[in-house]
Amino acid sequence: MTDPVALYGTAVPPAPATELCHGEVALTLQEGALRHIRVGGTEIIRSVAFLARDRDWGTIAPEIGALERHEEDGALRLVLPLWFDTGSARLDVTLQVQIADGRLCVAAEGRTHGDFETNRAGFTVLHPIEGVAGCPVRVTHGDGRTEDSRFPELIAPWQPFMDIAALEHEANGMWVRCAFAGDTFEMEDQRQWGDASYKTYNRPLALPWPYILEDGAALAQSCEITWKPAPDSVPARPANEGQTALVPQTALVLTAEEARRLARQPGDLDMVRPQRLLCHVDAAAGPAAPQIAAYAEAQAALPGILFDLELICRFDGGQTPGEELAAHAAAVRDSGLVPASVFVCPSVDRQSTPPGSDWPDCPPLEEIHAAAARAFPDLPRGGGMASLFTELNRKRPPIGHLHFVSHALCPIVHAADDLHVMETLETIPHIARSMRGIIGGCGYRIGPATIAMRQNPYGSRTIPNPEGGRVCMADDDPRHRGAFGAAYALGLVAALAPFDIAVWTPAALYGPRGLFGDNGPLPLADALRAVSDLAGKPVREAGIADGIATLATDDARLSANLTAAINNGLPPYGWHLARGAEIETRARRGYLSG
Questions:
Q1: Quick one: 176 exposed, middle or buried, by C-beta within 10 A (0-12, 13-18, 19+)?
Q2: At what angle do helices 256-264 and 288-301 cross, to 10 degrees?
């Protein structure tokens, strides 16, 4: 299958990529970024890119000029112009890259035309996580001081390193040094957003944003990377907690309006047969009682499925947490809805509180969840975040009050190309392991977890995507509707399964993150049906290797190709469910990984 619409849900092709090699150095140039910088086949840096972000932390896609390539005196020099246009101002940047004698230097010189508003404009360097997490690092600060430390093993909620002039660290058997100039740099543990990287970036987050680069302002930054073999050192890797894991139950998320549609069309669930529905009630957007009543109407039409309340509460001072939650509980009783569980999250906690920002007014979580226990004494109760793990990691739930903890996932926060989306699956074990470090044996639920973003924690809106492109923080991603979306979902459950996730919510039922396209059910629906049918069975094997995701129980084996090429007998982004004797047959033919 090579039809781009069938693969990606859109005729918009992936961004072109150019493979560049010089001596022992190889890298990919894509959309103005140097990606997967390898020395002798070993990845030492995931990416070096000059980026500009808007006031909602959306990426301002640059117009990219013609690449100039020069080779002289054993050195490779590249020149690439970039133009970042906000509609009211423009930032013109010239990138110069030089590779020679165990050194790669990337320099940028730019100038603004008009007052250029941005949250960040400058270099971002991504360090890989596999072979780097837990490894030693030496940080040189702006005043010349040095600090010896390690990359975090569990995901750090705040910046692990500040005021960085240079970093020296191990990366897959190499000792790598990155030196920065032109601004103040710091690092964040980008795994908590789902990215497979630690990120060193310019301009401290504690400074005000957005800010203005005034008309005619000049900008100059550089990053120099050098490397040498490292002494033998293998970081300790904790074992997965999945010895007794079960395949998670599958849920689909609904709004109240969609619940009324489902009540009229209950057969819409037949193609997936999920065990549960996640019922989104947003008391900050409007009265909760009519929303709850809509779910009661749907439950009357579908008595055999579990309805879980996702209750977003105002907690804005108009009522105490106890009063607001008691009113919601009364609305549940009056509607006749019989929920299987209730998840409570303050509305303000859907938005991020970055470093240097003031926490918004909100009652303490201990008070909120104690009130939830009084309002819903007979229900399993959950907390955590309706947004991403990032927010949960920074504002941790009171585990003693909760039966389960949940957070969402989204792979297009910082980048949205095909390779990046699939690479975020590398990070899922890091997130799950870190989460288990926070919640211990408490129940763990995931979702919603879709390629497109349900709600933007980092800005005032999700980013429009009318052209069906690959857009960061968009609420509609076309790949959800293609084979890519099905493969991504199967990769996600394979990465999650070893950590005994109780429930995962990989899609909505309707809408841009739902299961229906213009021509009926999407490829994703068949994939989710295959996982849903395995719910509750012991996980015998799960994970991702060589571009193949695998989830196996005693009598079934799901395999998904996460690449755009034929792999392990599967077509691009194809998948297969083997049962019984077929598992042995395919293994003999070499079509099963692991």
A1: buried
A2: 20
Strand 381-388 to 341-346 pairing: parallel
Supply the pTM of this predicted model.
0.94
Q: Tell me the one-letter amino acid at 339.
A: P
The CB-side HSE value for 578 (13 A sphere, CA atoms) comes to 20
Give the type of residue at 304: G
For residues 486, 492, 495 and 500, what is the CA-based torsion angle, rounded to 10 degrees?
A: -120
User: How many beta carbons lie within 10 A of that of residue 115, not counting itself?
Assistant: 14
The answer to whether 333 and 305 have CB atoms below 8 angstroms apart is: no
Q: What is the pLDDT of residue 41?
A: 93
Q: Among 86, 110, 106, which Cα is nearest to 96's? A: 106
pLDDT at 583 over 90: no
**CB 95, CB 108: distance < 8 Å:** yes
pLDDT at 331: 98
- Alpha carbon distances (Å) from 336 to 259, 300, 375: 15, 9, 16
For residue 82, give both structure tokens: 């970039």
Please tell me the distance from the alpha carbon of residue 307 to that of residue 131, in angstroms, as a whole number. 42
- Tell the burial category of 127 from Cβ atoms under 10 Å away from its Cβ (0-12, 13-18, 19+): buried
For 111, the 3-state DSSP assignment is strand
- The verdict on whether omega for the bond into residue 210 sits within 30 degrees of 0, i.e. cis, is yes
Q: What spatial distance separates the first Cα and last Cα of the chain, rounded to whole Å?
A: 25
Strands 503-508, 443-449: pairing is parallel
pLDDT bucket at 594, cuts 50 / 70 / 90:
very low
- Reference 31, options 3, 7, 4, 67; nearest CA is 67
